[in-house]
Specification:
The radius of gyration is 25 Å and the shape is globular. By secondary structure, it is an alpha/beta fold. Helix 1 runs antiparallel to helix 16, helix 9 packs across helix 17 and helix 14 packs parallel to helix 16. Among the domains are: about 90 residues, Immunoglobulin-like (Sandwich), CATH 2.60.40; about 120 residues. It contains 21 helices and 30 strands.
Length: about 650
């Protein structure tokens, strides 16, 4: 498998020593962690944790047991013993910050402390003479329609509510586990926090009837279009924009004039800043003060339209995580060609453009199991890990049931096939990270993230939010953006996402567009977007300096993906194949290229590298060898279905440029 090569070996002799050592024996930091919601007491021993290391895991993401959440001293004792055992076994620990999900409620303790902290919605009822209704955001929201529990939820843009959540959760862990922070304990994981006033649709009845109901739902509560609200929002709006929101709040729900769109744009920009500052930022600040990283993922990140009502600006909130993350619910490798690319690009771009490298995934075969097509085979698990690594993922937190069974069972004689599968997958991820975790992502293209336009267009609806409920312009913008992302992935063009705020700070120099130390060769704009003046000025300066700026649909033609590749000095695969995903990296002045075949047919072809001494490495077997590079600078490659190939170049070469 892989490139034509000679003399395969376990680690190339001319790799740097750190590469060879990590490849031959990936450390715990490079390996996956299993999510464990309550470590069994029998597992919370040195031998119990050592057994997890033997099956290839690098650590666990854990919490005090959900039963008697945060109040059972017996459960706290078990957790303390488990963390101590992880330290003795050399395993890494992350702390999960909630009783189930979504994060923010501390298992109901926040609202028990102060019911006024509950999420608020400004709703609109056109049948009333006074259509505006300020009410609790519970019925017809994610709080009452999720797979874990129907439970009222705090207001994440209420600074008091978030302080209470941190006190009930983070401070409680700190009081009992302080000595392990920054050592064995490396990060906190927050799971699907969001603003609540949006209807995501009802759970299927066969699922809903199994969900625990903590807070009964008022069946008479009328579904209404709604937006998030908090106690000081009118004051914050007035301070920022110099006008009152109350006289113009009708524009949040109806209207298609420029004045209506201006109100909506201002409102949602404020909401985005409030949740970024008061939830994600406050948690990040606390974590940094206590020597751990903040991580986790947002809700429904694969749905661009939903970014507006759920968090205002998904890219911005992820930028206030030390290790931004995603939720990959499917292990079908072709997911990357549909919505997976967006799910992964958001946190990868947030990390890259904020000076970070580490990106987390919560990965599982949830979709396959829900469709009764699981569990995912090992080849799917490996290919899913590889394509996410190609997008920049470094931290793999597992929700795979087959691995979860290993953790829950302390009988070493049970589940041998699961153990072998776990070891193979963990070794695979470890080898990917051996080369890539310390490498820098090297995207060529900047794809504009059009949240600014969606702020202006978004109109809340009473029923389940769908794209069809929105304006024709919103549909065009979203359709263009998603189509561009899919075409870039299928054309093996590496890219990152940037919103109008990041774009406004860009500099044009040396033939490239620079954002916080990252250089891009081209900017791609979705159809119908309108850049605010600071962002437009930055793009115009780049274009005036000879930079490549293309807009989808200009001159009635789609964006020429091959032209973008040529602009960056890349050459397409021969023959071309939309099922091969490519990630490009630089480490120690060496080019690294990860090719992943997410399709169900083998790929045979060539890739241009331009160098004389390239190495091929197989993360599945651990074998590597020198590639045969022809006189045109091309390497012949053969990649079976759901397999991956790592190509590493010589020092001081950009490869394929």
């Amino acid at each position: 498998m892989g490139a034509a090569m000679s003399n395969p070996e376990s680690a190339p002799s001319d790799w740097p020593a750190a590469w060879r050592e990590a490849w031959s024996c990936p450390s715990a930091e490079l390996r996956p962690m299993q999510i464990v919601h309550g470590v069994p007491a029998a597992r919370a021993t040195r031998a119990g944790m050592a057994a997890l290391k033997e099956v290839g895991l690098g650590g666990i993401v854990c919490n005090v047991d959900f039963s008697e959440y945060m109040v059972s001293e017996a459960h706290w004792t078990t957790l303390v013993n488990a963390i101590k055992a992880c330290r003795q076994a050399g395993l890494v620990v992350w702390l999960y910050d909630e009783d189930g999900y979504p994060s923010g409620s501390a298992g109901g303790l926040v609202l028990k402390a102060n019911p006024a902290f509950e999420a608020l919605a400004l709703a609109y009822d056109a049948s009333r003479s006074d259509p505006f209704v300020l009410r609790r955001a519970y019925e017809h929201t994610h709080a009452s329609n999720n797979f874990y529990a129907a439970r009222r939820y705090p207001n994440l843009i209420d600074d008091g509510a978030v302080r209470c959540f941190i006190d009930k959760t983070h401070e409680a862990y700190w009081r009992r586990l302080e000595r392990h922070f920054g050592k064995t304990i490396r990060a906190f994981f927050t799971d699907e926090p969001s603003l609540m006033p949006v209807n995501l649709g009802q759970l299927p009845e066969h699922v809903r009837k199994r969900v625990r109901v903590v807070d009964p739902v008022d069946e008479k509560c009328k579904p209404l279009p709604a937006v998030p609200w908090c106690h000081d929002l009118p004051n914050r709006y007035r301070q920022r924009f110099g006008e009152d929101i109350l006289p113009v709040r009708r524009s949040l729900f109806v209207g298609d004039t420029d004045a209506d769109r201006r109100v909506r744009r201002r409102f949602w920009s404020l909401i985005a800043d409030l949740i970024t500052e008061r939830y994600f930022g406050r948690i990040q600040d606390w974590c940094r003060e206590h020597h751990v990283a903040s991580s986790g993922h947002s809700l429904w990140e694969e749905q661009l339209l939903h970014h507006v009502p759920l968090e205002g600006n998904a890219l911005k909130v992820l930028g206030r995580m030390d290790i931004p993350g995603l939720d990959m619910l499917s292990s079908n490798p072709t997911a990357v060609l549909h919505s997976g690319w967006l799910t992964a690009s958001l946190p990868a771009s947030a990390a890259l453009l904020n000076g970070g490298r580490r990106v987390m995934t919560e990965v599982s075969d949830f979709s396959e199991r829900m469709a009764k097509k699981g569990p995912a085979p090992l080849s799917w698990m490996q290919a899913t890990a590889a394509w996410q690594a190609a997008f920049g993922v470094t931290e793999f937190t597992s929700y795979y049931g087959s691995i979860g069974r290993i953790v829950q069972s302390v009988d070493a004689d049970n589940g041998q096939p699961d153990r072998e599968k776990c070891r193979a997958w963990c070794d695979y991820v470890g080898r990917l990270n051996a080369l890539l975790r310390e490498a820098r992502l090297d995207p060529d293209v900047l794809l504009y993230y059009p949240i600014y336009d969606l702020w202006a267009e978004y109109l809340p609806v009473a029923d389940r939010l769908t794209l069809k409920s929105q304006s024709p312009r919103a549909q065009r913008v979203i359709g263009s953006f998603l189509g561009l992302g899919r075409r870039l992935v299928a054309g093996q063009v590496s890219f990152a996402l940037a919103d109008h705020e990041l774009l406004a700070g860009a500099e044009s120099r040396d033939g490239g567009l620079w954002i916080r130390g990252q250089c891009f060769n081209a900017v791609v704009l979705p159809a119908d977007v309108e850049l605010p003046e600071p962002a437009a000025a930055a793009v115009n300066r780049f274009a005036s300096a000879g930079g490549c700026v293309v807009r989808d649909g200009d001159a009635g033609a789609p964006v020429d993906v091959d032209r973008l590749a040529r602009r960056a000095g890349r050459r397409p695969l021969e023959p071309r194949c939309k099922h091969v995903v490519i990630g490009r990296f630089v480490r120690d002045d060496r080019q690294i290229c990860l090719l992943v075949n997410v399709g169900d047919k083998s790929y045979e072809g060539k890739i241009h590298v331009g160098g004389e001494r390239w190495w091929h490495a197989d993360p599945a077997t651990g074998l590597a060898g020198i590639c045969d590079v022809d006189d045109r600078g091309e390497i012949g490659i053969s990649v079976p279905p759901h397999a991956a190939v790592l190509l590493t170049g010589p020092p001081n070469k950009r490869g394929n440029r």
